[in-house]
Amino acid sequence: MRVIAGKFRSRPLRSLHGLDIRPTSDRLRETLFNVLTAGNPQALAGSVWLDLFAGTGAVGIEALSRGAAKVYFVESSRQAAELIRTNLHSLGMSDGFQVLHDKALHAINKLEEFGLKPNFIFLDPPYRMREAYPEALARLGEASMAQKALIIAEHEKKFEPGPDFGKLHRLRKLEQGDAALSFYKAGQ
C-alpha cells in the first residue's frame, strides 16, 4: 500500500494484519481522487476532511498529500489509531491532522459541537459492520456539518447502503472490482 500522488507520492504506508482493517485499495483510491479532482489537480487545495472508520489512514493521508489543509481521522481501534499516527510520522507530518480514537457516531457528535464544517466526509466501516452505514449516514443527514460536504461511502459492490438519508441523497455510485463508492450530498 502506498500514497498514489501529491507531495508523498509513492511513499509506503503500513497496515495491520488480523484486525478488521481493509485498506482502500490503491486502484480505488486513485479512482476516487481522479473523480474528485476531475482535471483540476488543485481541487483539494485547502480542503478539510473527516475520515470516519479511518483504518490505516490511507484515504486521509492521500488527501493531505494532494493539498488538503486538515484531516480528522476517526478510528475506534486503539491499534489502528496508533497505526495512523505511525503512518503520518513516517511521512514527517506533524500538523494538518487530528487522530481521534473514538467511535464514529460519538466523534460526529463531538465534531458537530465543535463546529467542524468539512468539505469531504469519507466513511469506510469494516464490510461486516453493515449497520454502521445507515447509522452514520443517517446521523450525517441530520448534522449541520454535512450540509455542504460531499460524503463518500466505500462499500461492497453487492451491498446497497441506501439512496437517501434525511437530507442526504446519493448523486452517484461508482463500482470497481468488488468495491463501490457511493457519493452523497445534502439537498434542500
Would you tell me the structural class of the helices and strands?
alpha/beta
| Total domains | 1
Spans of at least 5 consecutive residues with low confidence: none
Looking at CATH, the homologous superfamily is Vaccinia Virus protein VP39
Ends apart, CA distance between termini: 39 Å
Content of β-strand: 15-25%
Order of helices and strands: HEHEHEHEHEEEE
Q: How helix-rich are the residues, as a percent range?
A: 25-40%
Biggest beta sheet attributes: 8 strands, mixed
Overall 3D form: globular
The CATH first-level class comes to Alpha Beta
Overall pLDDT level? 91
Q: How many beta-strand segments?
A: 8
- What is the CATH third-level topology name? Rossmann fold
CATH architecture: 3-Layer(aba) Sandwich
Radius of gyration: 15 Å
Number of helices: 5
Strand order of the largest sheet: 3-2-1-4-5-8-7-6
